[in-house]
Design a protein that fits this description.
The complex is a heterodimer of chains A (156) and B (178). Chain A is mostly helical. Chain A has two domains: 86 residues, Cytochrome C biogenesis protein (Helicase, Ruva Protein, domain 3, Orthogonal Bundle); 60 residues, no CATH class. Chain A is built from seven helices and no strands. In chain B, the strands form two sheets. Chain B has a five-stranded mixed beta sheet. Chain B has two domains: 31 residues; 130 residues, Glutaredoxin (3-Layer(aba) Sandwich). Chain B is built from five helices and seven strands; from the N terminus they run αβββαβαβαββα. The relative contact order of chain B is 0.18. In chain B, strand 4, helix 3 and strand 5 form a beta-alpha-beta unit. Classes of the chains: A mainly alpha (156), B alpha/beta (178). At the A-B interface, helix 3 and helix 4 of A face loops of B.
């Protein structure tokens, strides 16, 4: 049990520590990936527009001034609105954009699971039974009749 | 699953997909759709650059408005700013107001632009770009002319204005022979 708890703690630290470091000491490339150019609506990393160059200069200056990632993003949102963010903030109405896809995936998985369960339960007993005691598979009666006819014709 | 319930669920699923597609189509169609000349100019209320005081387009009813969309990083905007300032000084006593709408810009850059160009006409800041879609603005600079009744008149000038563009369209908005 203790071993599992230590493993969980190590994994949690492995996930949280880089995120905390990124928040405190953001880099230009990671912020470029998380922001959108307001004129061309491309990722800031891909945009070559004049305002994208100006935004990059602003980000560099704020990083040099010691701003956190959240502070830099907040300043850009203040200037350009939330559309400058590549992903909507996880608060208020925008939280729906994060929750709905997960809820949709969970709902779809649930529906698939229920349908699969019902399908497996509704199979005909002979289909589900597999080979009979003598090792032969049960055939559809019509198929069995045709097979008997063919064999009889072959025997004659 | 009972047959009726299955059909209801299928109809509901198809309806949701159709609704989402219709919303997408509407959004694509509406985006950057230009307003028609002769129709009422879309109203807005925006803060003045460098101030919390707001300017409402509705408050300018009864005046001719030259509505110029610009940004500090736009080179052609630098060229037309003196023309707009000159027109503002020439026509303000005749009930003409030049209004600059700065968008997709940093406050500090916009203020520097205004100071360097010696602009004295009102300039508002559209931080979220909310007016751009309503006026079908796809780049900078772009200029609309609004008559005293609040209707869009003359030409929608896409790109830098010339002296002739300004004179002609201000006269149209004033109801004078161009």
């Amino acid at each position: 049990m203790t071993r599992w708890m230590v493993a969980a703690l190590v994994i949690a630290l492995a996930v949280v520590a880089p995120a905390a470091a990124s928040e405190q000491n953001p880099t230009l490339p990671e912020l470029e990936r998380e922001l959108i150019c307001p004129t061309c609506h491309e990722s800031l990393a891909a945009s070559t527009s004049p305002i994208a160059d100006r935004m990059r200069a602003f980000i560099r200056s704020r990083i040099a001034a010691g701003d956190t990632k959240s502070e830099i993003k907040a300043k850009l949102v203040d200037q350009f609105g939330e559309s400058v963010l590549a992903a909507p903030p996880k608060s208020g109405f925008n939280l729906l954009a994060w929750v709905l896809p997960l809820a949709g995936v969970a709902l779809a998985a649930g529906i698939v699971a229920v349908l699969a369960y019902r399908w497996s339960r509704s199979r005909k007993p002979e289909e589900a039974a597999g080979p009979s005691a003598n090792g032969r598979f049960h055939l559809d009666p019509e198929l069995e009749r045709r097979l008997d006819e063919e064999l009889a014709r072959y025997d004659t | 699953m009972p047959g009726r319930l299955k059909i209801v669920l299928q109809v509901a699923a198809v309806s949701v997909v159709a609704l989402l597609l219709a919303l997408l189509g509407w959004q694509v169609f509406q985006k950057d759709k230009k307003p028609d000349l002769g129709r009422a100019a879309p109203l807005f209320t925006l803060p003045h650059l460098g101030s919390d005081e707001e300017l409402s387009l509705a408050s300018l009813r009864g005046k001719v408005v030259v509505l110029n969309f610009w940004a500090s990083w736009c080179n052609p905007c630098k060229g037309e700013a003196p023309l707009l300032e000159s027109a503002w000084n020439r026509y303000k006593d005749e009930g003409v107001v030049v209004v600059g709408v700065d968008a997709q810009d940093f406050d500090v850059d916009a203020q520097r632009f205004v100071d360097n160009a010696g602009i004295t006409y009102p300039v508002v800041r559209d931080r979220h770009g909310s007016t751009l879609g309503h006026y079908g603005v796809t780049g900078f600079p772009e200029t609309w002319f609004i008559d005293a009744r609040g209707r869009l008149v003359g030409e929608h000038v896409v790109g830098p204005l010339t002296e002739e563009d300004l004179e002609r369209n201000i006269k149209i908005a004033l109801g004078e022979p161009a």
